Amino acid sequence: MRILQKLVLDCDADAAWRALHSPRALAELYAPLMGLAPLAAEGMPTSLEPGADVPVQLSALGVPVGRQLIHVSDRAVEERRPGATDASTVRILRDSGIPLTGPLSVLDVWDHQMAVSPAPGDPTRTLWRERLVIGGLAAPALWPMLWATWQWRSTRLRQVAPTWAYDPEDDFAPAS
Questions:
Q1: How many CA atoms are closer than 13 Å to the CA of 91, on its beta-carbon side?
Q2: DSSP three-state, residue 26
């Protein structure tokens, strides 16, 4: 099962790419409904580096709801848009981690990809595309909740993207 989104954000693609790798910026997408806290003793990394495994505790309205492993990989592809004379670079972050505990841990598949590129006709804005693929027997039951969460994310993306031109401070503390 899939959830797809396509938005144009009020920030440039470089700022969006930095934000995709910032745990603090990503946590803002779910606030205040959901929280994200590091499980590692050293706390949350400043940047999600490709190949790293980052275990986090998820909470909903302050109540722990499960643990998730974030595993990031990056790639770039050239895309030629219809009517365009040149190709643009699309940068893709893939989180192929997996829910470890909680309701989402019953899923067999968790594949979340987020792509950023300059918006067509306006390089000061970002074309943001994302795809979440989930699988397993429980996927049909969990899809509505995840779809609603992604609608919240799209609203939050539009709200926080203009702030991404400024690197947010890292104020994560290790989970106790």
A1: 18
A2: helix
